[in-house]
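ugh ok fine here u go
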Amino acid sequence: MIFSSGQLEQLLVSDVGVFSIYLKMLTKPSSKIAAIAVLISLFIVASTSAIELKDGRTYFERPPRLLGVATSQNGTYIWNATYYFTVAIPEDAGEALQKLEIELAASPGRPIFDASKLEAFEGKRRKPGDKIPVKDVTIDARTQVISVTFDPPVKPGKTITVRVYPVRNPAAGGTYLYGVTAFPDGAQPASQFLGFGRIRIYDRE
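structure:
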């Protein structure tokens, strides 16, 4: 939805219990513009609402949750390991999930991933469901940031898992932190960082 300043004014001041402090300001022409600006700022910051702003940006009303990150093989140098990233899109997300980005934070090493093998499916790692169509997968050659675009975007109320295949596990053991960021549907989506998932790689004797 796109709100005009007048609609936002009506929406925000209707909650007298929260915004009654601004009602007197709104009755004074000299203060009305400032009051509306303050209310709009509060509305955007407090709710991260799934509205489309005048500039076309879209937001989640309630962001997805990162449920977990796991690997099928946790030893160094192992080939044919699989990494799993599971995300839940709440019923009241307000927008469908258009894209996920997975980025490795400061870690002991850096695995190399194979974009051609990436898959996504409904459900969790041990209870996979239907495959989810993936429109585009890119992996930055330098940073190894993984970007996954879904087509169509994943609707609210679903739990999905992205399955990623490294060429092999990294050579250095230690804790690997992966940051996951979600993007709502829309031409100008506002990103939402979901948090870090941890994969522990152990040195092989």
